[in-house]
Design a protein that fits this description.
The protein has 283 residues and is α+β, with helices and mostly antiparallel strands. It has helices at 13-28, 37-43, 68-78, 104-112, 184-187, 270-278, and strands at residues 3-8, 32-36, 49-50, 61-66, 85-89, 117-130, 133-139, 142-147, 154-160, 163-170, 172-176, 200-205, 215-217, 223-227, 233-237, 240-245, 250-264. It has a 6-stranded antiparallel β-sheet, covered by helices on one side. A 6-stranded antiparallel β-sheet has the order 13-12-11-8-15-16, with no helix packed on it.
């Protein structure tokens, strides 16, 4: 018997229907199922509802029914625990999901039987210090510090391992993991980094300066961003807005001491994923 968490895409009815079917099957097999409050509400699984604050406690596996965004939510809910995540693709691109809906039951059974591998993904630890208080977060993709809608550019002073590097005048800065190099940083013309290569990626968004290149840094680098000036900025972690920061406030990023563990059933060759997702045909 296993304790299994379900994360459901909050906007797709087919994912909710699949969640009900999967929950019924797993419960019939003797497993304990728990679903965060919001997911339980949209999928009609109120009897399995749990507070998100205790969702991760004692879990053996999390199954996400959605796209990559559902996996990002699972990482947020799991915090520093290393519970394996099995992604079932009810999304569109599905970089991170492992199986299609028709394969879900077999995939769960194989995972519980130990017939699987782990794809370890580096996480970014993000510490925001503002107004004398600090909050910590983990990101699978990226942390973003960018201008609010009311201002034009912002100024962010960057330190690398305690040494001043430069001050960026830009719409924002992205600190991404290798996994996140194909997310927001990619749209800002940053490089693509193979997910298994340990690194941190610092990419400016629409820089108003001559130096406009990304930096690929060692994963142990401590990247410290300090707001320089009166213009406020917003801080987002994997697409979730977590703070508004002002003059003198800091955001420090480095690799987290733990990783996300994505269930896989064979090697995921990154170049094949890129070819499939971007329609790169052989020439």
């Amino acid at each position: 018997m296993a304790d299994i968490g379900l994360i459901v895409h909050l906007g797709r009815r087919e994912a909710s229907a699949h969640a009900r079917d999967l929950a019924a099957w797993l419960t019939g097999e003797g497993h304990v199922i728990r679903v965060p409050e919001a997911d339980a509400e949209v999928s009609g699984l109120d009897e399995l509802r749990v507070d998100p604050a205790v969702f991760a406690e004692g879990l053996d596996l999390v199954v996400t029914l959605g796209g990559d965004g559902s996996i990002l939510r699972a990482v947020e809910l799991l915090g520093e625990s290393s519970v394996p995540i099995l992604g079932v693709n009810h999304g569109q691109l599905g970089y991170l999901t492992e199986v299609e809906p028709a394969e879900a039951r077999q995939a769960v059974a194989r995972t519980l039987a130990g017939e699987h591998h782990f794809d370890e993904r580096m996480l970014v630890k993000v510490t925001v210090s503002s107004g004398g208080e600090s909050t910590s977060h983990v990101a699978l993709n990226e942390a973003v510090v960018e201008r609010s809608a009311e201002v034009n550019t912002i100024r962010l002073a960057v330190e690398l391992d305690g040494e001043f590097f430069t001050t960026y005048a830009a719409d924002g800065l992205i600190v991404a993991s290798p996994t996140g190099s194909t997310a927001y940083a990619f749209s800002a013309r940053g490089p693509i980094i193979e997910p298994g290569y340990p690194a941190l990626l610092l990419t400016p968004v629409s820089p108003h300066m001559l130096f406009d290149r990304s930096l690929v840094l060692a994963p142990t680098t401590r990247i410290r961003l300090t707001v320089d000036g009166h213009r406020p900025a917003t801080v987002s972690v994997d697409g979730r807005r977590v703070s508004v920061v002002g003059d003198g406030d800091t955001i420090e990023c480095t690799s987290a001491p733990h990783s996300a563990r994505l269930v896989s059933f064979g090697p995921r060759r990154f170049h094949r994923v890129l070819k499939a997702k971007f329609g790169l045909n052989d020439r």
